[in-house]
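Whether sequence alone determines local backbone shape is best considered at the level of individual chains. Part of our work consisted of pairing the sequence of a single chain with a tokenised description of its backbone. This step matters because it turns folding into a mapping between discrete strings. For completeness, the protein is quoted in full, as a sequence line and a line of structure tokens:

_____
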Amino acid sequence: MARKKSRLETFFSLSRHRKRWGGGKHSTLAGDLQPLKERRVEPSDKVHYPGHIASIDDHVANLRIEFAGKPELVFEHAKLIVLIRREFDIPGNYARFRRLWDEETDFLCEHLNLRWLLSAADTFADHDADPTARAIAMMTSVFATTVKIYETDRFIFGRASETPIPERMTDLRENRRHLFEGMRMFLVGSGDTLRNMRWRLEPFFDQGPAGSLLRTLYDRFQANDTAFRRFAALHERDRTRW
């Protein structure tokens, strides 16, 4: 595994300082957030670039293209995450980020897509002063990253069909197949694993903005094309529905 740079190595990294130059002009947040919720980011005839951009000015300009037509508030949220990732005034910009979540949790959960919800969870996990919020955010991040990894695995190895193989369904029910080291496969159709996981998650859903973020990601993964939705479609036992 690659070694994380020491604080001294990071301090003397020229690229680290370059990626933060000019951050001051972007490091702001309006006192009244309501106009940001109502105003939309203007459309652009430029094409959004998905890769890394060294200049922070160019990065923010590219970000506006990504958020064209969406509320200014979600653009401001993304901009704060970019500044924090580039280590520009982390205390000040994290305070602005946390203010957005404290004041506009429901709005952000409704208008952010999964990419930026995951980025928000990572930001909570990295920087929040409350260890409970950090733990819930880390759980959210691990959950979302696991979905991303296994769905990518499914794509690159060619397992894209949503139609189960009947004989394997029968095999699974009759033989309770093992994965490895004592872990068994999920019993599709009747298993209680996902219902029980949902029950265990529920107390965390009510723990402030980090809990709302976790609930939103969980619900989105039930609605989108993931194993959760595919398995829910095959579930037959009412007592163990999740």
User: Anything to note?
Assistant: The chain has two domains: 13-112, 140-240. The beta strands are 178-180, 183-184.
